[in-house]
Amino acid sequence: MSLLLRIHQWLSFLGYDASFGLAYLIQTIVVIVFVGISFVALIYIFRKYMARIQRRVGPNRVGKFGLLQLIADLFKLLGKESIMPAKRDDLAYKLAPAIVIIGTILAFILLPYGDLAYFGSIAVTHSRVTLILMFGLLSILPIGEILAGISTKSNYALLGTMRGVAKDISFEIPMMISVLAIVMISSRSYVTGTAITGGLSLSGIVSNEVIPYGIIEPLGLLIFYISMVARASMSPFDMGESDSELISGYTTEYSGMRFGLFYVGLFGMVYLTSFIISILYLGGANGPYESYVGFFYLLIKTVILVLIAFVVWVTLPRIRIDRFVNLGWKYLLPLSMANLVYAGLFVLYIR
Prior knowledge:
Layout: H1 3-10, H2 16-53, H3 69-79, H4 90-109, E1 115-116, E2 120-121, H5 130-151, H6 155-186, H7 202-208, H8 213-216, H9 218-231, H10 243-246, H11 256-281, H12 290-315, H13 321-348
């Protein structure tokens, strides 16, 4: 049983096709609302956590403990005048933030969230190739950054875009090689040694993950985590938006809600990164009584990874662009190749 089928049963009086269509729509809206509330909670936690480390109070004026501060910030951004460059490429300029935020939200719809008691599985997408779809969407997000940098006709934004492209190429290759190792390992049961299906499906990988793959290949977990955090463009890896050098990189010429969409997209990528790592390397929703509380297992693992990312964000200094790129090409790429060979040997000689 799944949430989709539950909603279908509740709407069965509308007929088979209409009830299924509405069930998909309602479930998608539920997931999007959950993701949106999570974004707000993460931004609030980050601001309070950063304030505590910097010996400040943080949000504390609007609402109890400053809980309504983000709502006030939202209305402030909506009310701000959107100042746009005179020589901009108008279509690309307006399209860039939409690509970033829509691509991030669509990626959340592909995640297998596990089971939750009476409602069953909360997964929206039931496909055999969700892993490919996920990284296909992630490869679209840099297009928004490129459009934002090029369309504004600003040198700061252009330099930020070029840095962002160098960052994505440097870290996406070792990241995808690490994912290939996961696909290889999940293609065979390490209990019986027999070939199994579902290696390209996120839900299939979780169901095959009797032992978390992070235990089987910790090097792959480390490579993937560094690569995904670097892709998320959070400090100290925010080469495309480094404020000490490029003002704000490819978002320099954005203001108001368009800048807010880029800001939300940044936290969305941190959250999405933590979800993907939890699913691929930490067992996802697997655990005792997973058919009842599997969703909470996945959520707890994800929140822990998010907090680790926040610690990295607020404590480590930004590194130089050349050393940053070298980290991807000279260290993570050879290590990811070695991890791939290890995964092949693990699958070849498994019993």
